[in-house]
# Entry
Amino acid sequence: MMTQPYTHFHPGELWLDDQGVHVNAHGGGILLHEGRYYWHGEHKIAGGAGNSAHVGVHVYSSVDLLNWKDEGIALAVSPDPASEICAGCILERPKVLFNALTRKFVMWFHLELKSQGYGSARCGVAIADRPEGPFQYLESFRPNAGVWPQNVAETDRRPLSPEESAQLKELNLNGGAVPNYPENLIYRRDLDTGQMSRDMTLFQDDDGTAYHVHSAEDNGVLHISQLTPDYLRPAGIYRRYFAGEFNEAPAILKRRSRYYLVSSGCTGWDPNPARSYVADSIWGPWTRLGNPCEGTTEQVETTFHSQGTFLLPAPGKPDAFILMADRWRPADAIDGRYVWLPVEFEGERLVLRWRERWSLDELDSKVM
Ligand code: GAL
# Structure
């Protein structure tokens, strides 16, 4: 088994930290702060029990993205059963930003209250003075209660009729794609309670404005929602995208003033073909670029047996990026693997190809 110091990425292999333990930061994201990288992700335990949260959000730090130091638990779940983030809740896909105005580190994550399956569809927010934490849990909510999406016509800004409510109740919406998905009903149903929020990422633009990008409307529609200047709440400005196309696992990068979005379909822990999009503004219009993966049919159809979680700017190479993805192991969650691959750009397209082993030096001109 390879151990530190690592000189290369080995997608899908065990990846040991400075203690010789497989990194435990699934569904994660990376923050660069004062020259150090911080990887926050879901701490999973062994077995199927590891699919819910029993420990919290783990954080590691590194200067080279290869050799990671265990910095402990950044946000701990609570032993108090009355807490929204009590042990046994589902706490997924944590992402952390540094807010330059408040000088706080702000974490958002997907939260499912204990014993409710994936029905609560909330986002949680926590705050810290240091990237390692400890993060203090603030609250959870469904975003944008009482606010209409900006890209919805006046005529569609209305409550559901009794017939529409009945139509919705008949559908078995369980997070996966359904035929005859009603594209124009669920955001209206959820106006008062706030919009559903499951798989998510945060994206911080060059001007400091940050966005929460999340699967909404029973996963059928992706929402992009601007955050308040302190990053603690939705600013009440949001738009809906790709209605009825069922996107999950969103990740965003910005390169040469263009925005690229990579997502997956909705098949739970099982992998599926990735999707990619490009736009000149975070608000779109987003152009569909199709599946970014190239390789064998199996690799293309399963995104190399993984599902994306973050797009990471490569150190010192302004035009080069790394896709971070998870190879889930739901039967033994702690053994989930990390698939990090260079992002290549070919004309308009963003392309991902399998590499058995690669180093940052190989982010060559093609990649850049
Ligand atoms: C995936 C999602 C994961 C997790 C899982 C549960 O589609 O991306 O974050 O929620 O479903 O089945």
User: Anything to note?
Assistant: The two ends are 32 Å apart (CA to CA).
